[in-house]
Every structure is written in C-alpha cells, then in structure tokens.
Protein: Trehalose 6-phosphate phosphatase
Organism: Raphanus sativus
Amino acid sequence: MMNQNVIVSDRKPILGSKTITISVSNSPLFSSPPTHFTFPRRKFLELLEAADKNSNKNNLGAGKIASWVDSMRDSSPTRLRSSSRDSVSDNNHKTSWIVRFPSALNMFDEIVNAAKGKKIVMFLDYDGTLSPIVEDPDKAYITHEMREVVKNVALNFPTAIVTGRSIDKVRSFVKLDEIYYAGSHGMDIEGPTNENTYGESDQGVLFQPASEFVPMIEKVVNILEEKTKWIPGAMVENNKFCLSVHFRRVDEKRWTALAEQVKSVLIDYPQLKLTQGRKVLEIRPTIKWDKGQALKFLLKSLGFEKSEDVVPVYIGDDRTDEDAFKVLRERGQGFGILVSKVPKETNASYSLQDPSQVNEFLKRLVEWKRKTVGEA
Ligand SMILES: O=P(O)(O)OC[C@H]1O[C@H](O[C@H]2O[C@H](CO)[C@@H](O)[C@H](O)[C@H]2O)[C@H](O)[C@@H](O)[C@@H]1O
C-alpha cells in the first residue's frame, strides 16, 4: 500500500476509549474515498510507537509528509509567524525583529571596533547571499561587481565560500582562485589554488568526510530524476556529496506528490537524510557534518582553533547556514549575519536584506581594512 496518508479521525479517543479509528486515504493524487480501520487502543499505541521508532531513522514515518509540505511552504529559515495577520501587527513584528537582529550596515562601526587588533576571517554563503535567488539554479550568476568585491575581501582577509552546491559548480560561477571553497554543505573543502596574500597556495582538497557516499548520491540522483520527471518544474541537482530536489518551479498542488517521491526513495537509503533550504529538499549523508563543522575545520586549518584573536564573520541566508551561526554563538566569537527581508528565526546576530546590501557591507569592510593598514 504505497502513497498513503493516515489520519487519526479523532484525537480524544486515544486518551480515553478502548478503540481508536483511523482513516487511510490514498495520495492526494488519486481521489478514492478513505478506508476506516478500528484498532484496540493498546495495539494502536504499539503500532504508533513502532512507526515512530522507524521514522526516527530518517524522518520518514507516517504523517511526516504533511509536515514536510508545511515546512516546504515556510521557506528557510523558518519564518516567524505573527499572531495576527493585520499590517499593524506585521509592522510591529518587523520592528521588534530588526531591534533583535539589527542591520549589519547600521552596526558596522560596532562590528569593526570588535575586530580591532584581531584577525577577521570571512565566510560567505553563495545562493541568496552572493547571488540573488533566481528560478533556474543553473543561472544563479554572481555579478561582476560582487566578484570584484569578494576578490578584494579575499586579498584582505582569509575568505571561504561555504555552499550547498558542488565545488565545481560554485567555482564555475565565482571564478576566483584565491579563496577557500567548502562545497556540498561543507563536505568538500578545498584551499586556494592561487597564492593568496597569506602565502597559501596549491592546497587543493583539504577534507572530504563523505567521499564514500559519492556513488550512492549518483545513484539516488538518477532514481530521483526518473521518479520526478513527470512533475513539471521539478529538478534534481547533483552536488557530488549531496543532492538537491528543487521545487521553486513546481506548482504547489504537486508538492505533496514530489515529497512522496523523495520519501519513497529515502526509505531505501537510511544512510541519507533530508534537510531543507529555500524551495529545495536537500538529501545528504547522515554523517555529523554541516556548514558549522566546516567553519570550525577552516578556522583550525588557518591556525585559529583556540585563538582569542580571531573574529569569524559568517554571512548566509539559508536554514543550513544556521549551523554555522550556532557555532559562532557557542564559541562566543565573531558574528553571524542573516540575509533576509522578512523576520525569521535565527542564531545570527545581525541582518542584511539582500545581496546588494551584502555587497555594500563587504565594500565597507575592505575600505575599513585599507584605512586601518594605512593608519598603522
Ligand atoms: O548553501 P547555498 O550556497 O545557499 O546553496 C543552497 C542551495 O542553493 C541553490 O538553490 C537555491 O538557489 C537557486 C538559485 O537562486 C534557487 O533556484 C533555489 O530555489 C534555491 O534553493 C542550489 O541550486 C542548491 O543545490 C543548494 O543546495
């Protein structure tokens, strides 16, 4: 019995009566009426417990699809919901959010004052941070102006691009050799291939904690391409150590169907897990490695593991960047800057609205550095 939604018809009986009735309906794609089953209460609770244990393996238990789709709607990181939808309350909500996460441009002096006499290390997410979000992931180009400013940042501070994309793909967009790349959500880390001002060069691959997963990812990409080809707008992207299933161009009516296809594949691969980005389902190995771990790895590689004299600045827009913001909070070091126009739950300290503000912030940072070197 594939593609089924299980609906507990009444929650109260679970607590009180001896039997529980559930309705089982086929996928919303098909329109057959639901079938009703009545279970002895104890048996039902045993089944529920077993399903829950199973679901813990990779979050695929009965009823999870609905929550997947809910969170697909939420974009990322999770939007903060205001209690009322009227515009006055929305404005109050925005105002109180911006007080908690002020603009990094308005707080620029505070940020650089905290960095005086210390070494700034820059971490930059790619999509939504250095390039604006666009419909077609293959056309998420960085502007010439942004490339120039990132290059100047890299000439002044050790700089890494930390992205969910494969290194090959992001390199083909960014086209800079003097920076670090942490691709596939940090599971593929490479050093600069041109000598940078820190004398680091030709470092090539530094760390690939999930290399044994490459053949599995390739296989899953092929299966998912086959299984989703009938869903208009769905796109599967091979990010080498992980993969993305895009639904930005999929009609919302088909999101459940898409999530079900992804689920049906993930069930056979308990070594893989699902995370979510902006209108994208991301599938990656269950290893404990993420953008936060990549940030720690890079700081250690740069000799700053225990240093008090480093100020890591991480700029990102995505739910996956939260892992890095969290690491900075836990270390009590540096600043996370969330790129977002709308209030979102975040572990960042500051905010910027969009890539053009990121560009402005980076330019000011370079100017500040040049000025302080000139003054010294
Ligand atoms: O870590 P990031 O650099 O932010 O990468 C995360 C995902 O970014 C890309 O998808 C996102 O950007 C696309 C282009 O603007 C957009 O069409 C898509 O809806 C976004 O989710 C990338 O294509 C994914 O593989 C990355 O996982």
